[in-house]
Write a structure and sequence with these properties.
12 strands, Elongation Factor Tu (Ef-tu), domain 3, 2 domains, six-stranded antiparallel barrel, alpha+beta
């Protein structure tokens, strides 16, 4: 489980293709600092929105085995040596809960369609796969390349996020450009509610069948 509060920008150290996918090595660029969390083999790390398992750590470089399906269904398959990635360790019960709950399970890859960089604001517009728009709501949460963001505006087939200077400085979105493909993970609460309502509708429990009892049965209240 992650929160979308990126701890560092790493750099792809190497990518070695193999029969199951690839061995991807990421240089943390000095992250984490001595005395902080130290990644070890078997740990989960969020790499630009994708939950990956550490298989090796050597001199600040973390190695991950990435299967072919992950390479095909995220933007990790498009990365090359020297490309930056966002890094976040798994959340613990003792740390502040910033951002929002994330699983590191990418729902789809979207495309940046517009970047507006003005003196008073910086906005990025993303067009997600059509089936993800049901989970995109104004002021809701979304993860873009592993970054927890609040949705600023929603159009028919795309949405906008407003970026603060800290996000621009500490994450890969500071260098994003039009046509760049980004990993998207919708808010787990939105996905759960929409999924349940769709199930109710398909089973004949539409708006007329939505009662306090059906909400109790669905687990939304006691």
């Amino acid at each position: 489980m992650f929160t979308g509060i990126v701890q560092a920008k790493g750099v792809i150290h190497s990518i070695q293709r193999n029969d199951f996918g690839a061995r991807m090595s990421v240089d943390g660029g000095g992250w984490p600092d001595p005395g902080d969390y130290k990644p070890a083999a078997g740990d989960s790390i969020c790499v630009s929105g994708v939950c990956l398992t550490v298989v090796k750590v050597s001199a600040g470089v973390m190695g991950f085995d990435v299967i072919a399906e992950t390479l095909a269904k995220t933007n990790l398959g498009e990365l090359k040596e020297g490309d930056p990635v966002n890094l976040e360790p798994p959340v613990t019960a003792s740390q502040p809960m910033g951002g929002h709950f994330m699983q590191g399970h990418v729902d789809g890859v979207g495309e940046v369609t517009e970047v507006v960089a003005g003196e008073d604001e910086h906005r990025v517009t993303v067009k997600p796969p059509a089936d993800l728009m049901a989970f995109i709501i104004p002021k809701g949460s979304v993860a873009i390349d592993g970054i927890s963001l609040t949705i600023a505006a929603v159009a028919e087939d795309r949405f906008e996020v407003a970026l603060i200077p800290t996000t621009l400085d500490l994450t890969t979105l500071g260098d994003t450009t039009v046509h760049r493909r980004v990993n998207l993970e919708a808010d787990i609460i939105s996905k759960t509610v929409v999924h349940q309502l769709q199930n109710m509708q398909s089973s004949g429990g539409g708006a007329q069948g939505l009662t306090m009892q059906t909400l109790r049965d669905a687990g939304f209240c006691e």
